């Protein structure tokens, strides 16, 4: 039994000695590379060691950005579901039939203003007997796009120009850009 202890003990000591030697060698390489690191001239062994943490941080950054993008898309989906309770003005995709006399119609999908804005009226004793505060969802910033309508007669200009909403806000209705009075 005592012989067994003697044979196992040297093996364990050898393993511990090997670990210690590896740790010392690694420590010496790091200490030897310290002056080079300051001068931005890391030896090849140190270059490999120093790049691994950067790769991990880059991977972590990529995952973080992916999570943020997914959460932003989830927020868009949620806001699209709550359109009935949405109060404000937003840019939204809209399809309409563009037509003019002498040409065929064309379905156009564009960005337009959509929403509800704060509006109120209250009665007053003097003429016009009502005080009103009426704001509508209207264009704030647009760009114009021109298309050619199909099947136009020879003497008819086929071009059709329409606005694309870039930004929408609640504001006073301007008859120059918006049809303000709805027909009943």
TrEMBL record:
For the Glycoprotein hormone subunit beta domain, which residue ranges apply? 88-181
Among the GO molecular function terms of this UniProt record, one is: hormone activity
Matching entries from PANTHER family are given as:
GLYCOPROTEIN HORMONE BETA CHAIN, GLYCOPROTEIN HORMONE BETA-5
Q: Which GO terms describe its cellular component?
A: cytoplasm; extracellular space
Subcellular locations according to the entry: Secreted
Q: What is this protein called?
A: Glycoprotein hormone beta-5
Q: Does the keyword Glycoprotein apply?
A: yes
Physiological role: Functions as a heterodimeric glycoprotein hormone with GPHA2 able to bind and activate the thyroid-stimulating hormone receptor (TSHR), leading to increased cAMP production. Plays a central role in controlling thyroid cell metabolism.
Query: GO BP, one example?
Result: regulation of thyroid hormone receptor signaling pathway
- Coiled-coil ranges (or none): none
Organism whose genome encodes this protein? Oryzias melastigma
Q: How does it assemble?
A: Heterodimer with GPHA2; this heterodimer interacts with thyroid-stimulating hormone receptor (TSHR), and hence stimulates cAMP production.
Record keywords, A-Z:
Disulfide bond, Glycoprotein, Hormone, Secreted, Signal
Per its UniProt record, what SMART domains does this chain match?
GHB
């Amino acid at each position: 039994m005592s012989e067994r202890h003697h044979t196992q003990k040297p093996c364990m000591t050898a393993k511990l000695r090997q670990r210690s030697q590896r740790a010392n060698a690694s420590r010496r390489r790091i200490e030897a590379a310290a002056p080079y690191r300051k001068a931005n001239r890391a030896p090849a062994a140190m270059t490999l060691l120093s790049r691994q943490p950067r790769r991990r941080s880059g991977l972590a950054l990529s995952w973080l950005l992916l999570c943020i993008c997914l959460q932003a898309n989830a927020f868009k989906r949620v806001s699209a579901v709550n359109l009935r309770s949405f109060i404000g003005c937003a840019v939204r995709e809209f399809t309409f039939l563009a037509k003019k006399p002498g040409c065929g119609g064309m379905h156009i999908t564009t960005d337009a203003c959509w929403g509800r804005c704060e509006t109120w009226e209250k009665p007053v004793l003097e003429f016009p007997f009502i005080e009103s505060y009426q704001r509508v969802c209207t264009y704030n910033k647009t760009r114009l796009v021109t298309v050619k309508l199909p099947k136009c007669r020879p003497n008819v200009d086929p071009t059709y120009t329409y606005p694309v909403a870039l930004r929408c806000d609640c504001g006073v209705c301007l008859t120059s850009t918006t049809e303000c009075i709805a027909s009943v």
